[in-house]
């Protein structure tokens, strides 16, 4: 539950933060709650998706279900967690059978059981956008559980793969591109569960990139109390060089972003894109240019927002 | 996640049920999922509330937040669970500060931390009903965890308190009764957590009464493979004798309904209202009259539905 968006949303989350004093809540500043229970450590997350904001009304409900599962499991991945199951909150009224088909596919792909949930039926007179919620429950595979707050000065910054693919995917979808492969990155993101588990023992900080690389990197920097210097050309992108700046600011790619002490090689394929410096005025320095949330980190939450 | 309502909802839940094969899901036939994890047993539930279905658009958001917490914690109560925390799924756009105030009050009353969640901001153009979701996580205080399925022939059926209070409360709200106490039972239901924990070791089956006493009793009977004979006059009601039949069919009272072997006294205040018989054609026999879901159990899901 990270503030991003309107003033009303920021104010609401500030109010919640005052309420979320339990250490497991991590101040609502992380991807997940981390709750010790006996000898186990639970990892808990709840993400919502709304028509017109996070998906297009005309999208295949099977893709919507997939993405709902994938985005929540991606949060677990960023903690190195193993999924134990999900609970679904579902508003009836679309092609519900297609939604179930996508749910079946996503849960099978990541060997995650459906444990329960709730469905509601709005009245026929209600034509507002439908919203779905999913709670994912996992168990930590490594202690301490990675957070966003652990990066130290001198650590190197790594990214597991290219960004910008979801941007191209949404464009293909909006253009009604007949080849479904062209929109796959947007429709069917892949939660990097195996990578997250492999990385958990060696990272000093980790998160998944959901709202855009630069914005999410700034969050990691703020949480850790450092500044991240990033080399633009080192960032792998899924699009043409001409669109590099856009690719760094679009979301929905679900790569893992993490820091490790210098001299250590990540145990999974990853690209070194920067380094942690002593905190300056701004959380990010991109090719020598300081950037903060008000200047140039960009924000494209749901790319579907503009198309909703 | 229990089927109740439209054909579409029933079909959807049937589809989900085929997917929910993990034993922790309990076939989606129980109030909660029950997941063993190391030496602990997790109790998980997710309930949603929608404007116009579960609450009135003009209701105080603080009451809506309270009820969202209370209904989920009531599910935990029916398992004898101790709450560990909640995750909130929230759609911005009403009096968000009032919602937080109600959340603070409910979580403080039941000593339950907010662990995380998600908020979404629909566009200003969206005027549809808002929906909220809450996931409650608890730990079992007694094994085996009570289910709906454990009632045996000869067991006695008990109810912790009166039904019909929420019916009167909604009516007071609709009539704009100036005394808030008159609508309290509907606005601020009380999850019987302490009672549930005290009862867990001695019950053979237990559930909370959310959709109406007779309908929920029928679910317990079906799950247990017995028929419940119920004496109408033994059921405590919060309304006049003239409205007894209605009180047995309205929901939202959140009493605990449970069975115990004969000859054992419940450890909390409760009223003996019936007995488990060998399964007949119908799940309920009320004052000698057989009743099933198609005849006379009634269904008033969200009393707000008709007022939405």
Report what the structure shows.
- The structure is a homodimer of 308-residue chains.
- With 308 residues, chain A is of the alpha+beta class.
- Chain A contains 8 helices and 12 strands.
- In chain A, the strands form 2 sheets. Chain A has a 7-stranded mixed sheet, with helices on both faces.
- The two termini of chain A are 22 Å apart.
- The C terminus of chain A is likely disordered.
- The interface between A and B is large, with 73 and 73 residues.
SSE topology:
The structure is a homodimer of 308-residue chains.
Chain A: H1 7-19, E1 33-37, E2 40-50, H2 61-77, E3 81-91, H3 96-109, E4 114-120, E5 131-140, E6 156-159, H4 165-174, H5 184-187, H6 193-199, E7 205-208, H7 213-224, E8 226-230, H8 244-247, E9 256-260, E10 271-278, E11 284-286, E12 289-291
Parallel strand pairs in A: 3-4, 8-11
Antiparallel strand pairs in A: 1-2, 2-5, 3-5, 6-9, 6-10, 7-9, 8-10, 11-12
Helix pairs in contact in A: 2-3, 2-6
Query: Which shape of chain A, going by the Cα principal axes?
Result: globular
- Please identify which CATH superfamily of the largest domain in chain A we are dealing with: PurM-like C-terminal domain
- How many domains comprise the coordinates of chain A? 2
**How can the largest sheet of chain A be summarized?**
7 strands, mixed
**SS-based structural class of chain A?**
alpha+beta
Strand order of the largest sheet of chain A: 7-9-6-10-8-11-12
The stretches of 5 or more residues of chain A where confidence is low (pLDDT under 50) are 300-308
